[in-house]
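Reading a protein record of the kind used here takes little practice once its layout is understood. An example of such a record is reproduced below.
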Amino acid sequence: MFRLVRGTGHILDGLDVLHRDQVALRIHDGAFSAMDLTARHPRTGELLSTVKFMVQTLAAAGELQRDLQRELTYDGLRAAEAKGSKGG
């Protein structure tokens, strides 16, 4: 799931494309199982506010995870360099 929602803007654009092409996106396993991430309001056609909130929250968590991994990688490279090793 986190691979899908790494950037809020891109995932919302992607959901618009899926909706336009009449493709539903459902998560089948885990905490968000059976949630339709392309669900729209029947009158306005806009992405449901609860779905939009969930997607934005997941995107923020995915971005945080990626940023933390990057920081840890750089910390590890600096620590190795301080010991005389060169990371690659």
User: Anything to note?
Assistant: The mean pLDDT is 81. The helical segments are 8-20, 49-82. The longest helix spans residues 49-82. The chain is about 55% helix and 5% strand.
